[in-house]
Amino acid sequence: MNKSKYLVLFSILTALILLTFSPAQSQSSVGAVPQRADIQEVYKWRLQDIYATGQLWEQDFKKVEAMLPQFEKFKGKFQQSGQHLESCLVLRDSLLNILDRLYVYANMRRDEDSRVPAYQEMSDRAGNLRTRVDQALSFIEPEITSLSSATLQKFVKSRSGLKIFRHYLDNLVRVKAHILPASQEELLASAGNLARGPSNVFDMLDNADIKYGTIKDEKGKKVELSKARYAKFLESTNRRVRKAAMLAYNSAYYAYYNTLGANYGTSIDKDIFFAKARKYNSSLEASLDASNIPASVYNNLIKTINANLEPLHHYASLRKKILKLDELHPYDLYVPLVPETKMEFTYEEAKNTVLSGLFLLGQTYLQDLKKGFESGWVDVYETRGKGSGAYSWGAYSTHPYVLMNYNGTLEDVFTIAHEMGHAMNGFYTNRKQPYIYSDHATFVAEVASVTNEVLLMNELLKTETDPKKKLYLTNYFIEMVRGTFYQQALFAEFELAVHEKAEKGEALSSESMSQMYKEIVQKYWGPDLVIDSVATIGWARVPHFYTNYYVYQYATSQAASISLAEKISQGDKQAQQRYLDFLAAGSSDYPIEILKKAGVDMTKPEPVMAVIRLFDELVNQMEELLQ
């Protein structure tokens, strides 16, 4: 439960899912990738705001090293007085605050140009220092949990400096029942490499051993299949190509069918073992308890979707109709339903589009966002050696930073809205919260970014007058919801089903998991989808399954975001203020409670229903636009 923020690299998986499940966007042709020196300074982030010189970075590095021995004097002393505990926690957060700056700066320098040896060395040194810090601080939380609740309460009452740590300490007490005696904790820790075995095996199979063979493209040319090309071929308007791509891709996993089944089964056994060892009733409860998420939230998501699958069935029927198919197969689910519409934006146009699209968040948010655009937060364009993709990062004592590889597409505009949503979340949290509460639980981290996407899309749909572009945007939004909400909920339902089967003592095999997966896919998509036998191995291709009960958070994040956007769009000033307060909350309370204060209760069906209603409306609108 280390609260250090040095690894808070906000996930952009939602954005990647959006990209994967949406129609292909046109890519601007700009010739050779430029060197960093070719880019104007106004389009570069200002890392000099963290350290003006390398010498200053070195000074902080030495400062952290010098602070490490100071923690020795606190070992075994917490029982003696609240002053020892307070002094240790204050010193820890001071050290971690500096370490954040070191680590973030070094890695963002490396991401500017990974070809520069000095940046690689700086990143390695920061990583090694982080490991040394982790080791030096590892005694703190076990020693805190060894104190009685009464002792901790007495310390907090007697030491004013401990009051800001109250929630942090309360949470340690909350999970105390699941913390084992030191010798048993040491034994579980020593099994860490074994526990990571299934994930490591899958990674090696998926990234090194599995070969996808070749298929013939639209021109009849034989081409090698890869993950990236597979996604492209599934969007092909040539059905032969789509079918061949899915057959070849899934067949590659079928070559390891029994191995993948045994490996995932072992991963499930590992989850159950650790849950039992820590005295939880189930693996689901054990996983969700880290953020104090009730199991009812997970079950509510699945139950509510299962009771309202008609909009997705309608979409399957519409897809079949638009594509003029006798039968709808899994390889028909990703081809765009509308002709590609050219929508290109300069970076200045993209910024203005995002600012206009988020006007409902109020002048304060817009002014701060505009300031971020103008104050060296964003590294805009692709350059040689630069890190790929997009992310938002930063340290507690720095302004946020956003890495982009902007190319002028509609997806890029949404990525800006997404990443700046993360950036603003960090900006407001760091301004309001003490260091200890400056991070964000995964359950809420994506809400700030996806809410921006939803508000932006609503505004684009509202103001667009070109029928073709409006249809394109509608289809884009449908695929965004389908990929992030329905698909991830489907995965979550399968994940829960196989864990529950194993927890009952029933055997799992590749065949049984394929059958369970097929039944869930069929239920979600309805009678119009004909599931080919080769597609039933879809469960074996999901790397996130090796981090148990993770994917559901993409669906719940979108549910919370759409519900919040709906309230804000109604012009409710209180809803707007509650949302801004949410952005500043950090981890000062449990995720469920933070969202409740914002106006969304994820223990109830309503936020999930908000997504289902929206999806239903979008599908109906698309059907009308196509007529």
CATH-defined topology of the domain at 281-340 and 440-627: Neurolysin, domain 3
Class from secondary-structure proportions: mainly alpha
What is the architecture of the domain at 281-340 and 440-627 at the second tier of CATH?
Orthogonal Bundle
Number of helices: 27
Q: What is the CATH class name of the domain at 281-340 and 440-627?
A: Mainly Alpha
Radius of gyration: 25 Å
Explain the overall architecture.
61% of the residues lie in helices and 3% in strands. Residues 1-30 have low confidence and may be disordered. With 627 residues, the chain is mostly helical. It has 27 helices and 5 strands.
Write a compact overview of the structure shown.
This protein is mainly alpha-helical and about 625 residues long. Helix content is about 60%, strand content about 5%. Among the domains are: about 35-180, Oligopeptidase f, N-terminal domain (Butyryl-CoA Dehydrogenase, subunit A, domain 3, Up-down Bundle); about 280-340 and about 440-625, Orthogonal Bundle (Neurolysin, domain 3).
